[in-house]
Amino acid sequence: MTKKLPIILLNFTGIYDYESFASSHNIMHVDCRDINGVDCYCDEQARKELHRRLSAFPAKALHFIDSGDFHYLTEYWVSRLDEPFSLVVFDHHPDMQPPQWKGVVSCGGWVTDVLRKNPFVRNIIIVGASDELISQIPVHLREKVLFYSQAEIDHHQAWPSKAGRMIHESVYISIDKDVLRKQDAVTDWSNGDMSLLQLQAVLRIIYANEKVIGIDITGECSATLDYLSEVRNADINNKANEELMRMILAEER
Fold first, then answer.
1. Tens digit of pLDDT for each residue in 128-169?
2. pTM summary value
3. Separation of alpha carbons 195 and 181, rounded Å
4. Could you tell me the pLDDT band of residue 1, with boundaries at 50, 70 and 90?
5. CA dihedral defined by 78, 141, 148, 111, rounded to 10 degrees?
6. Are the C-beta atoms of 203 and 250 separated by less than 8 Å?
7. Helix-, strand-, coil-residue percentages of the chain, each rounded to 5
8. 152: CB partners within 8 A, 6+ apart
9. Which of 12, 48, 103, 197 is 20 to 30 A (C-alpha) from 73?
10. Distances from the Cα of 61 to the Cα of 78, 106, 150, 192, 195, angstroms
11. What is the distance between the alpha carbons of residues 124 and 87, in angstroms, rounded to a whole number?
């Protein structure tokens, strides 16, 4: 019998209250709304509290981590892995900005933190990032990461012929829904142009070729003052989360 993949949901903004998928009895909820110093940048005190609160939950799981403002939590989950791994990131933004303050992790620079600090990471592969943003990454960092354009990754042979030759270990996947077009995800950041169906197709290719040991999904749209907009945005993101969760759980069987 295949062991069920644990599903863990971190609630920072309350937005999941508007998304019906989150009411599944299979999902473990972690309320983080009372923690200060976590929005976009995570200070030392907040980091210690998050690590304390999350220590009971496995890294080898499906994690929902709220808005892209908290994408830096991927760095925490992969820091808990105790085996060599490759990190695959779906994101319209490379998240490789230089740190602005020492000791502070950010949603815009966490990939660089993994690259510099994690002793088990072997490859980092970023899918769907903007060419303009990639060009702004310092050359010495850019050379250490493999980038896929959407057109390239859509081809069914692109993964085995390029990333597949590099990867000889397990894979952790991180998905920021801002890699998707606006019809399929409403986020706090600018969107890419990948469709939800295209993202699912690429994930199936990865599952077919690699051993996936963990995955996280971020990119919710923070609450606004407009209730009707909140509900409409949450409906779009709920559909994406629900379909991604269903597909991932089916691949895990």
1. 999 889 988 989 888 899 999 767 777 667 788 888 889 999
2. 0.94
3. 6
4. very low
5. 30
6. no
7. 40, 20, 40
8. 158, 162
9. 197
10. 11, 22, 26, 26, 24
11. 5
